[in-house]
Amino acid sequence: xxxxxxxxxxxxxxxxxxxxxxxxxxxxxxxxxxxxxxxxxxxxxxxxxxxxxxxxxxxxxxxxxxxxxxxxxxxxxxxxxxxxxxxxxxxxxxxxxxxxxxxxxxxxxxxxxxxxxxxxxxxxxxxxxxxxxxxxxxxxxxxxxxxxxxxxxxxxxxxxxxxxxxxxxxxxxxxxxxxxxxxxxxxxxxxxxxxxxxxxxxxxxxxxxxxxxxxxxxxxxxxxxxxxxxxxxxxxxxxxxxxxxxxxxxxxxxxxxxxxxxxxxxxxxxxxxxxxxxxxxxxxxxxxxxxxxxxxxxxxxxxxxxxxxxxxxxxxxxxxxxxxxxxxxxxxxxxxxxxxxxxxxxxxxxxxxxxxxxxxxxxxxxxxxxxxxxxxxxxxxxxxxxxxxxxxxxxxxxxxxx
Length: 402
Description:
Elements: H1 3-9, H2 12-23, H3 33-49, E1 63-64, H4 68-84, E2 86-87, E3 90-91, H5 99-119, E4 128-129, H6 137-149, H7 158-169, H8 197-205, H9 210-223, H10 230-248, H11 254-261, H12 268-279, H13 290-308, H14 317-332, H15 353-382, H16 389-397
Antiparallel strand pairs: 1-4, 2-3
Helix pairs in contact: 2-3, 4-5, 9-13, 9-14, 10-12, 10-13, 10-15, 13-14, 13-15
Protein name: THAP domain-containing protein 9
Organism: Schizaphis graminum (Green bug aphid)
């Protein structure tokens, strides 16, 4: 299993989700306290062993002379907990699946001894220790870059490795899209965004026609019979907060920000969705307004009708989803947002801010949903829930130099 997938599975967010389902009375998640406790212990270890920001707080803070004693006590209690884990009557650390327990214990002892020596040495002691800087993630990412340069051969010989290393040295950004771990030091977007003229012309040519309008009317009839499950609404509320956060980086209008951030905690229609976000919130999640939740829910219904049920895509699928959601909302309300929440635009002929916000919400959500649907489709339909042939034969052929 890849390290980044293990870190995502054994995270506090997963523990919060299990507790949320348990508190809601879900039968499958009852008596899951031990699982939640195990996940939180491993997540705490990941935070301490991957501290990378000098000004972070809590368990993500760097090791220094003021918190090294508390971290030592955490390591000792976690070590005792890992030693008590059993498979049947046999402790895990002496069984065939002992490597993760032994690895964590060795890492904790090594980091602690190294921190003591670096923080309390006589000459030039360090003020703090960032444990992520001494992890093997950097080596893993470098190997991933080397493998990606080799084309179909991900096990280069000496001369090939020499040429690959020369290419990487003359490359400004060494980036990798897939690897065993995540690159936390990855830089942001490029200063200049390059787009091909052919791509721009395709986006202009994909205009709606009368057939699309007829299809939208058929979709609207199916949309009325489409209902979202309880947990789907919870997930959409979480995604809505992410959409609002990404939009706030681009907005300069304070009224638009207030409409997106508007929180109706005492509103009966918005209470259920906000409850899930609050249960997993640690201070940085955003509760989207009721209007954003309404738009995202209608977009999900339209996506289910147009894409999931038909299991096919065409050139105007994005336009059909947006128009289907827009008309569905207009049938229930004449305004996308609450009336009187935004002043009228001064520029005559310019589109209203409400409609511009609606278009931006649709664009971000469809992009997120399409990427997720693409991964699910490739896994179920193309790969048939099996690993790829290359992944299966990589260690059999390449690692045996055949």
